[in-house]
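Table S7 (text form). Paired inputs.
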Amino acid sequence: MSAEAVAGTGPKPKKSVALSGIIAGNTALCTVGRSGNDLHYRGYDILDIADTCEFEEIAYLLVHGKLPNVAELAAYRAKLATLRGVPEAVRETLERIPAAAHPMDVMRTAVSVLGGVLPEEDGHEAAGARDIADRLMASLGSMLLYWHHWTRSGKRIEVETDDESIAAHFLHLLHGKPPRASWVRAMHTSLNLYAEHEFNASTFTARVIAGTGSDLYSALTGAIGALRGPKHGGANEFSFEVQQRYATPEEAEADIRRRVAAKEVVIGFGHPVYTLADPRNRVIKEVARRLSAEASNMKMFAIAERVEQTMKEAKNMFANLDWYSAVSYHMMGVPTSMFTPLFVISRTAGWSAHVIEQRADGKIIRPSGNYVGPEDLPFVPLAQRR
C-alpha cells in the first residue's frame, strides 16, 4: 500500500477552530460579546440586572419569558418553595454515592434519577418543561446538600426550609443556619451572572440532545457532563487553586510572570467570545471586594487582583467571571468542589430555556465533518491479512 493511500488524497486537515464564529442556530435568549464586552438576557443588559435582581427574577425571565411583576414574583417564590423536596428514591440513590465522588457527579446522577422518578410527559409541552425547570432549580441544592451532609456526618437533613429564595436556601442547608443578608445578596448576583451565556459548550450540548426529541432531563444531564470539564464550568475551581498557591501579592506576581514567560496557561483569563473584557467580571469583582471587606480578610482578594493586573500587563488578557467568583464563594464558606454545582443551579434556567427554544425550532442538529482519513483502500479478506 502506498504512502499516498495511507495518508489519503482527500481534504487536508483544517486547523481546529472548534466551531468558533460559526452560527449554529437562532436564539432570542441571549447575546454575548457583540461589542467585545457586552452580555444581554432577552434584551436586558447584564450590568443593569445582575446586582439588582433576585435570581428568581432572572430565572422567570429566562424560563417564563419576561421579568415578573411584584405579584408574579411572589407567586413564583411560593411555587419554588414547594418544590424543594427530594423524592425518597432520589434520596436513597444519593446515599449510595461515595463521599469521594465529585459533587458534579452527584448533580448529574440526581438529575438523571429524578427524570426516572418524575419523568417528563411524552408530549414535551413547553408548560411541562417549565415546571420541570422550576423543580430542578428549587431542588438541586437540596439534593447536593442532602448527599453532602449524609456522606460526611451520616445525617439525613431536612431540605425544605422556609427561606424565600434559592440563594438563601442553598446557604442555609450548607451551613445549617439562616444566612446573613449580605451573603444572600452576593449569591443572587453570582447566580444571575451564571444563568445564561448563549451557545456555550454545555448549552449547545443540551440543544443537540433536545434536537433529537429527547426529554428535558436527558438534555440537562448531558449539559452537566459538559459543564464538568475544566475548560468550561470547572474553571472556577481551578481559579481558586491558582489563588491559593500564594502567600502574598508579590509572590503571586513573580510566579505569574514566570508562567507567562514559560507560555503556561493561567486559568481564569481570556474568553473565546469576549474580545475586550468579560462584563460580568466588574460585577463579581465588586461582590468579592465587599465580602472580603466584611470578613476583614482582604488577602485572597489582593492576590487575585494582583494576578489580574499582572496578566493584563504581561499578556493583555482580562479576567473572566470565574476568577473573582472563586473569591466570592470562598468568602461565603462554599467548599471549592461546590463552585461548579452552583453554576449548575443557575445555568439550569438558561439550559431549560434553550431546550424549549430548540424544540420550537424542531430540527435535529447534525453538522458535517471534514474527512481527512485514507481513501479507496483495497479490501483484503480476513484469511489473507498478515
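Next pair, protein 2 of 2.
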Amino acid sequence: MAKIASTRSRSSGNRNRLWGQRDFSPADLLNLWKPNGAWEQHGGLAYGRKPRQKLDVYKPRHAAKAPVLVFFYGGSWQGGSRDLYLFVGASLAAQGIVTVVPDYSIFPPVRFPIFVEDAARAVRFAHESAAQWGGDPARLVLMGHSAGAYIAAMLSFDPQWLRQVDLNSQTDLAAFIGLAGPYDFLPIESRTLRTIFGGANRAETQPISFVTGREAPSLLITARRDRLVSPGNSRRMAARIRARGGVVEERTYGGVGHLTLIGAFAPALRVLAPVMREVTQFVWRVTRK
C-alpha cells in the first residue's frame, strides 16, 4: 500500500494547497517574525531559462567560507513557491549558514524526472556561486521537506542526476537532511502520483533503491503525528543506510505534524520541536574542517 497518506485525503490536499498557492498561506504569518542575526536576501536569481528556474539566497552578512545549504520545499510535486520559505532561509542564515531556496518545475505540465533535473541545476548553480555569497562549495548540504526531501534524497543517493551537471553526489555533498520525506512509497495508489511518476511500481523513482552506504551522512527527521507522509519512510530509509554501512541520524518529534515540522524553523514556533537547533548543529558538525 502506498505510504504517502496525503494522496488519499481531500482535507490533506487542501492543507498542501494552502502552502502551495501564492494568494495566502500560513507560511506568510511565519514570515512576519524575522530571526535575530545579521543576514541579507538576494532574490530571483536565475539558474536556468524556464520561469520556475529561479532561486533566492539568504546570506549571513559577514559570511566567509560558510556552509552552503540548498533547501527544497514540498507541495506533492504539484505546488510551492520559494518566497513562502523566507522563515527557513533567514533562520539558517542568521546562524551563519548560506541558504539557497530554489523553485523547480512541477506537475502539470512536467513529470518525473524533470523536477529532479531542475534541482540538480540549482545545486550546480549554488556550487559555482557559493564563493560570491561567502560560502564554501566544499561544505555543501542538501535539505528538503516532504516532496522536497524526496528531491534532495534523489540527488544525494542516485548519482546520475548530479553527474548530469558535472557533480559527484558522493564527493561534492557534505550531507543530506530529510524532513518528513517520502523515500519508499510503492505501490503508488494515487492516480495523480501514478501519472507524475509514470506508473505504480517503478523502483527507479524511489530514493531507497539507490542506497549504497558510500553517501554523505544523513539526518532524517520526522513527526510522530504525521498524517500526510508516513514516518515509516524515514525509518526504512535509515535502516537501509545502516544495513549498507552508511552514516545516518534519526530524530522523531511528538509535538508537531507534517506542516508544523517545517514551521518550527520560525522563531514563533520553535517551542514546538528543536528542529532548527538539530539541523543547525548537524550542519556545523558534518562540515567542520
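The chain has ten helices and eight strands.
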